[in-house]
Amino acid sequence: QHKNTKHLQNPRASLENMKAGVVLAVILMAAIVMVERGQAAITCGQVDSFLAPCLAYLTGEAKPSRACCTGVEYLKDNTPTTADRQAACKCIKDAATRYRGIKLDKARQLPKECGVDIGVPITPDIDCSK
C-alpha cells in the first residue's frame, strides 16, 4: 500500500468523525442563535456567586469588601443584554427573599459604593420586565 492512502483504510471512522463535527457545529450555532435572540445566558447560580461576598455589607458592614465590588463588576460584565439584565434582576429579587436582614438602603447604595453603574436600582419593588 502507498503511504498517502493510509488514512483511507477506515472510511467508517472518517464518516463518524465528520458526523460528530456536524453535530457540534449545529449545537454551537443553536447556542449563538439563542444569545442573539435575547435569551438570557446568565444563571441565578452565577448571580448568587457574584454577589455572595456582599452579604456582610448588605446586612450591616460599613463598606463593601473588594471581593463584593469585584462581584458587582462581574455581574455588570456578564449581563450585556436586556434579557441577561432581566434574568439577573429576577435572581436578585429571589435571593433577597431568601436572606433575612438585608438592609434595603444598603442594597440601593451597593453599585454606587463599588463605583459600578449597573443601570438599574436594586430595590425589591423594581419591575424586572423593563
UniProtKB/TrEMBL annotation:
The keyword Glycoprotein is annotated on this UniProt entry: no
Transmembrane segments: none
Matching InterPro entries: Bifun_inhib/LTP/seed_sf, Bifunc_inhib/LTP/seed_store, Plant_nsLTP
GO biological process: one example: lipid transport
UniProt KW keywords: Lipid-binding, Transport
Annotated Gene3D superfamilies: Plant lipid-transfer and hydrophobic proteins
Domain Bifunctional inhibitor/plant lipid transfer protein/seed storage helical: 44-128
GO molecular function, one term: lipid binding
PANTHER family per the UniProt record, alphabetical: NON-SPECIFIC LIPID-TRANSFER PROTEIN 2-RELATED
Family: Belongs to the plant LTP family.
Function: Plant non-specific lipid-transfer proteins transfer phospholipids as well as galactolipids across membranes. May play a role in wax or cutin deposition in the cell walls of expanding epidermal cells and certain secretory tissues.
Protein name: Non-specific lipid-transfer protein
Organism: Citrus sinensis
Lineage of the organism: Eukaryota, Viridiplantae, Streptophyta, Embryophyta, Tracheophyta
